[in-house]
Amino acid sequence: MSPILPATSGLAVWTSHEPLSKARRRTSAVDEPALVSALKLRRELQDQARKKVGDKWKDSDLVFTTRYGTPIEPRNLNRAFEAHCKNAGVPRIRFHDTRHTCASLLAALDVHPRVAMRILRHSQISVTMNVYTQIPSPETRKALDRLAQSLGTGEQGK
Fold first, then answer.
1. 96-126: buried (b, 16+ CB within 10 Å) or exposed (e) per residue?
2. Would the pTM of this model clear 0.85, i.e. be above it?
3. How far apart are CA 38 and CA 11, in angstroms?
4. How many other CB atoms are there within 10 angstroms of residue 24's CB atom?
5. What distances in angstroms separate CA 111 from CA 105, 126, 141, one per listed residue?
6. Distances (CA, A) of 83 to 65, 115, 118
7. Crossing angle (nearest 10°) for helices 113-120 and 97-108
8. Cβ atoms of residues 94 and 78 within 8 Å
9. H/E stretch holding 6
């Protein structure tokens, strides 16, 4: 296992996989108090789970585990994510598509592409721009608004 975040306040996040690129090995600017608080809460939840299952608990250094302390299998993560989407009443998407959603939201918020690239931990800007984002330009938005108005579906008086 290798750390993906430096040990901070006695806490570290570990992964069993090597990052795909050097960009993913870099540290990120995170709200440290919020991160520490979230990790402490996660530790409390694991302590509760450990007590609940007793001897069935498998000790590990993992932050996210099954109810028995074992690593989460990817298919089970996908199933749980689908269930959360259904319960939240949002469209079903693949877990990995949340990265696409994040990139598209950053673009819609006019976050500079280089900043989005760092947040998404891409090693090349072309990945951020060509693969993950669907950036409607202001001209595209205006054209679509005009088209909607001509079809009688747009708001009048824009």
1. eeeebeebbebbeeeeebeebbeebbbeeee
2. no
3. 11
4. 15
5. 9, 16, 18
6. 17, 32, 30
7. 160
8. yes
9. strand 2-8
Number of residues in the chain:
158
Instruction: Tell me the CA end-to-end span of the chain in Å, nearest whole number.
Output: 56
d(CA 152, CA 144): 12
Residue for token pair 């609940």: 52
Residue where the block lists tokens 């007590």: 51
The per-residue pLDDT for range 107-147, each reduced to its tens digit, is 878 788 888 898 888 888 888 887 665 666 677 778 878 88
Give the tokens for residue 100: 């696409």
Q: What is the secondary structure of 88-120 as a DSSP string?
A: HT-----TTHHHHHHHHHHHHTT--HHHHHHHH
Using alpha carbons, select from 58, 68, 64, 59 the residue that is nearest to residue 14: 64
